[in-house]
Amino acid sequence: MQFEVWAPQAQDRVVLRVEDDDVPMERDPERDGWWIAQAPAADGSRYGFALDGGPVLPDPRSRRQPDGPDGLSAVVDQTAHEWQAEWPGVDLPGAVLYEMHVGTFTGEGTFDAAAEQLGALAELGVTHVELMPVCPFPGVHGWGYEGVSLWAVHEPYGGPAGLKRFVDAAHALGLGVVLDVVHNHLGPAGNYLPQFGPYFTDTHHTPWGAAVNLDAPGSDDVRAYLLESALAWLRDFRLDGLRLDAVHALADHRALTFLEELSTAVDGLSGGLGRPLFLIAESDLADPRTTTPRTQGGLGLHAQWNDDFHHALHTALTGEGQGYYADFARAPLAALAKTLTRVFFHDGTYSSFRGRTHGRPVDLTRTPAHRFLGYAQTHDQIGNRALGDRLSATLSPGLLACAAALVLTGPHTPMLFMGEEWGARTPWQFFTDHPDPVLAEAVRNGRRREFGAHGWAEEDIPDPQDPATRDRSCLDRAELAEEPHARLLAWHRDLIALRRGQPDLADPNLASVKVAYDEEARWLAYRRGDLRIAVNLSPGPVEIPLGGPVAARVLAAWNPVEPPGADGVLRLPAESCVVLAGG
């Protein structure tokens, strides 16, 4: 078979090692910086490249790292897996996403163990599982955002074969699979890319150091490296979409940006495969151009996370007002109403957290609501807290039910974080497994200093390197036999069924959403077509005027509630919510 590697850093020679054989490589006469060689190999053959007499290094485009990021690469026969059936795909409009970390979704922490639990997600009614990153990273357990070998799959999870089995199992149940990929940085351990070529540049700096090279000399091949890896995930693993981590951290000043190039390529692949594919951006810019079609001057990504909705909902539920929550906490229900109707809270308004004006308004007349994801919890918003505490650690079941109602009946595409559907009490904490003791100690001390600066006692911060930190973060399904967990699960199931069964909840028209609220009384109600959704976040009952006589019936309610009377007033119990039809 032919081996090739982009290694412009090599001065004189590159040697391919396949198993125990060394094969000199030749410069590719048609591609600058590329080296090629022919050598016998089969599925599983170990190989690597030695530059200018240096050590044998893994392939930057490795499809498998059996011994972790520092080991040799392995050949993968992509045709070896026999897919169960043709997969038509599941598109983003109408979707309900479920964010999953493979390593803590089950105690085993593997694709196969996670696949055994997919039937419960199909029964819940979600449409897509969004996997957190699965590229190889040091050790066994970690979040995945310090991955390297961006074409490969973490071996302790089950490697590429395990991921394919997982996708097959999901598709057999009608579930799409989305993968979180990280293009803005690579982990500090096992990252050999700089020895091959200018994958990074000092032209720009990021929180992780030198930026990934998207616009400096040599960036054509770096962009191709990222773009082709993205297409490989979608093509070779039959994934339905990708979530792009922190696209605001991609430093790219070229006229044709990498994100435009990527969205064009993904749309082309979708047409070629005959099934829908999509890209979801995580962006801190509050910029609708991220998801505006390319024909209208945008980047052409298909959706983006909306942290503004999360922040408004979080402050309304918890009363927290520190850090980036400060602006939302001044009038949380007003902030929530704005994000339900206009998407971004910061749409050209002053952000005290940033010390400047931030964001840009969304054109409600031409932007469908499904382009924005709404959620009450994510891996970031739980795991980046000092103790990794979920909302269930401090909120009543009634307030958790209200959060679910706002997420699952809102105009946005809803997303749940694993375990949220039953109010899981297990935390989701920051954990690592760095074999390098120096790096392990740096991560441990950095975490303690970070939260110590915010008033936490350093000894109270969980040690990321302690295996118990990961173990505490694994879901405990024994909770499902207990209350209020069983009731919360049934509530989520009912709300998702309503979302899929009521056309008004699929209406993409953001301008049609009408919201009323009372900041002091702590209630909020909104209308979507023939449906009205009301939540009472206060510790006592409230009366909500719905505007004249209303002939409505109750479709779903957390606590027993009567439809509004002749006076049009809805009387809602404390910490409760309802979905009404009619009126």
UniProtKB/TrEMBL annotation:
Region spans: Disordered: 50-71
Name the UniProt record assigns to this protein: Malto-oligosyltrehalose trehalohydrolase
InterPro entries assigned to the protein according to its UniProt record, in alphabetical order: DUF3459, GH, GH13_cat_dom, Ig-like_fold, Ig_E-set, Trehalose_TreZ, Trehalose_TreZ_E-set_sf
UniProt-listed SMART domains: Aamy (SM00642)
Keywords: Carbohydrate metabolism, Cytoplasm, Glycosidase, Hydrolase
Source organism of the structure: Streptomyces liangshanensis
CDD domains in the record: AmyAc_GTHase, E_set_MTHase_like_N
Enzyme Commission number: 3.2.1.141
Residues at the catalytic site: D245 (nucleophile), E282 (proton donor)
Family: Belongs to the glycosyl hydrolase 13 family.
Molecular function in Gene Ontology: 4-alpha-D-(1->4)-alpha-D-glucanotrehalose trehalohydrolase activity
